[in-house]
Amino acid sequence: MYKNFRRLLVIYKGARGPFIVSQTFLAFSVLLNLAIVALNGTLVNDGVQQGNIEVVISTAVWMIGLTLIQTIFALGNSLYAVLFAEGTANFLRVGTYRKIQTLSFGNLDRFRTSDLLVRLTSDINNVKQAVLYGILLLFQAPFMIVMAVAMAIFLLPSLLWLMIVIMVVVSVVLFFLLRGVQQMFVARQQALDGVNNVLQEALAGVRVVKAFVRERFEMQRFAKVSNTWLDAALSPAYRMALFVPSLQLIVYTGTAALYYFGGQGVFGGTTNLGEIVVFSNVLSMVVGPMAMLAFIIPFLESGEASCGRVFEILDEEAEIQDRSTAKPVDVSNIKGRIVFENASFGYRDRAGKTTGLVLEKINLTIEPGQTIGFLGATGSGKSTLVNLIPRFYDVLEGKVTIDGINVCDLPQRQLHQIVGMALQESVLFSGTVRANILFSRPDLDDDEIVAAAQAADADSFVSRIPEQYDAPVSRRGTNFSGGQRQRLAIARALASRPPIVILDDSTSALDMATEARVQEAVQGLMSSSTKLYVAQRISTVLTADKIVLLEHGRQVAVGTHAELIQTSPLYREIYESQLGKLDEQPERIASPLAGQSMGGTA
Ligand SMILES: Nc1ncnc2c1ncn2[C@@H]1O[C@H](COP(=O)(O)OP(=O)(O)OP(=O)(O)O)[C@@H](O)[C@H]1O
Ligand SMILES: [Mg+2]
C-alpha cells in the first residue's frame, strides 16, 4: 500500500528530521490534551460539587497552563509538518526539473509540454497536500482513538458499550458518505489536467488563434473543459458539505444518551458527574479523529496517484547518455571531418517503438572546412539527418563519426562544444541579447560576441537599439522579428567558433541580399570550420562544396551544383522551379554566393 509514498520517504532523506520532530511534538500535544480533559473531572467533582472555589481556581489555572504548553507543541507539530510537506514538494520539483533537463530529444518527444507542466505543478501540489494531511493526522488520529478508548475503559467501563455504539454508527455513516468520493477526486484531477492542457496550448498559440479568427472556437473549447472541471469539483464538495452536520448529529445524540444513562448512575450513586463530563469530552475526542482518518483517505489516494505520475518522469531514462567507454578529447584539436556510414534512423512512438525509417542507409563523407548544403522537400529528413551529428538522436544502424570517432564515444558535453547549431526553430530566452549569444559559452569576451553577431548580420540591427547588447529579449524572443531571431540564433551558434557549424534552415526568413551577407561573413569568420547548411531555397546552397539531395529519407544525389545539374533530374527540377528554366538563363547562377570562395577542401 502507498508504495510511491514509501519510496518517497526512502529517497528523500531530508524529510526524516522534520518528520520525527513533528511526530514527537504531536505525541506530547495529544498527551497534554488528555490531561486537560481529565482535569475536567477534578474541576466538577472536587471543585464545583464540593463548593470549593480554591480547587476551581487552581484547576482552571492548571488547565490554562497546560493548554498554553499544548498549543506550543501543536504549533511545533504544524510548523514541522509544513516544513516536511513543502520540503517534499520542493525536493520533487527540483528533482523532476533536473531530470527533464537531462532528457534527450527522443524522451521529450513523448511527453507533452502541458503534461510536464501539470506534473510539475498540480501533481506535486497533490503530493504536498497528501503528505501534509498525512503527517498531521495519520499517526495522530489512531493515537487519539486508542488513548480515548483507554480512558473510557479506565473511567466508566459500564458505559464503554455507548462509546462502541457511537464508533460503529460513525463508521457506517462515514462509509456511506465517503463512498465514491475518491473517484470524484480522481475525476476532479483529470478535469483539472484537461483545463491545463487546453490553457497551455491556447496560450502558447494565442497569436495563431487570433490570426485565424479562432477566438470563438477556443473560448468554446475552454468553456467546455472549465465546465467539466466545475461539475467535477462540485460533486465531492456537495458530499463533503454533509460531513460536519452528520457527525455533529451523532456526537450530540451520543452526548444526550450519555447523560441519560450516566445520569441514572449518578442518581444511583454508582458514578459521579465529573466522570460523566470527562466521558463526554472523550466521546467527541474519538469521533473527530475517526472523521479525520476517513477524510484524508481520498487525499492520500490522489497524492499517491500523483506521486506515481511524478515518479514516471523521475524514472525516465535519458535515451542519450554518455557511454562508459566515452573518452574525452581535446576539442581544439578537432578538425571537423564528418562521416555517415550506412546510417539509418527512425523515430519512436509514445510506446517507445520505432515506427518506420526516416533515414535509410546514409553514406556521406564531409571533409574539414567544407561547406555542405542539404536540400530536399519538407519532411524529407534534412533536420533529422543533421540532428544525428550532435547526437540529439542515436542512429538505429550504422554510425556517425567526427574525426574518425563515433559520436556515441564522445562525452556529450564535448560533442556539443564541437558542434555549434542553430536549430530550425529559433527560440530565444528572456534576458538580454548578450546573454542569448553567450548561451553556450558564458566566458566569451565582447569582441567575440560582436564578431559572431557581425557574421550573423545581427550587429547591424542590435547596434541600432539604444541598449545595444544589453537590450532586453522577451520570452521566446517575441520582441524581435522572425529574421532577427534567426540571426541571433546564428550568432549564438557561431559565438564559440566551433569546428562544426550546422545552420538548419536558419536563413529562411531572410531576404536574399541579407542571406548573402550572412553567408559571406560566416565563410570569413568560420573559414576552417565545417559548415552545414540545411535549406529549402536552392540559392542558399548553390555554391557549396557538396550538395546532398534527400528524398523520403534517402540520399538520392550528392555532388556540386554543376555535377547535379547534369546527373540529377530531381535537382534540375528543383532548380528550375525556384530559379527559372536553365536554358533561358544559362549565363550566371543567381546565387548569393556567386563569385565567393567557399573555402575548405572540395
Ligand atoms: N520528433 C519527431 N517525432 C516523430 N517524427 C518526426 C519527428 N521529427 C520529424 N519527424 C518525421 O520525420 C520525417 C522527417 O522530418 P524532418 O524534420 O527531418 O524533415 P525536414 O526535411 O527537416 O523537413 P522541413 O524542411 O520541413 O524542416 C517527417 O516525416 C516527420 O514527420
Ligand atoms: Mg527541418
Short description:
The protein is of the alpha/beta class. It has helices at 3-11, 16-48, 53-102, 105-110, 113-137, 140-155, 160-178, 181-204, 206-211, 215-241, 243-268, 273-315, 382-387, 412-418, 433-437, 446-455, 459-462, 482-494, 512-525, 538-541, 561-567, 569-579, and strands at 338-345, 359-366, 371-376, 397-402, 405-406, 419-422, 431-432, 472-473, 500-504, 530-534, 546-551, 554-559.
Question: How would you characterize this protein structure?
Answer:
- The chain crosses the membrane at residues 20-39, 59-83, 130-153, 159-178, 240-262, 282-300.
- This is ABC transporter ATP-binding protein.
- It is found in: Cell membrane.
- Residues 338-577 form the ABC transporter domain.
- By secondary structure, the protein is of the alpha/beta class.
- It has two domains: 3-315, ABC transporter type 1, transmembrane domain (ABC transporter transmembrane region fold), CATH 1.20.1560; 331-348 and 355-584, Rossmann fold (3-Layer(aba) Sandwich).
- 61% of the residues lie in helices and 10% in strands.
- It has helices at 3-11, 16-48, 53-102, 105-110, 113-137, 140-155, 160-178, 181-204, 206-211, 215-241, 243-268, 273-315, 382-387, 412-418, 433-437, 446-455, 459-462, 482-494, 512-525, 538-541, 561-567, 569-579, and strands at 338-345, 359-366, 371-376, 397-402, 405-406, 419-422, 431-432, 472-473, 500-504, 530-534, 546-551, 554-559.
- The strands form three sheets. The protein has a six-stranded mixed beta sheet with strand order 6-9-10-3-11-12. It has a four-stranded antiparallel beta sheet with strand order 2-1-4-5, with no helix packed on it.
- Residues 586-602 have low confidence and may be disordered.
- The site of adenosine-5'-triphosphate (ATP) has 14 residues, from helix 13.
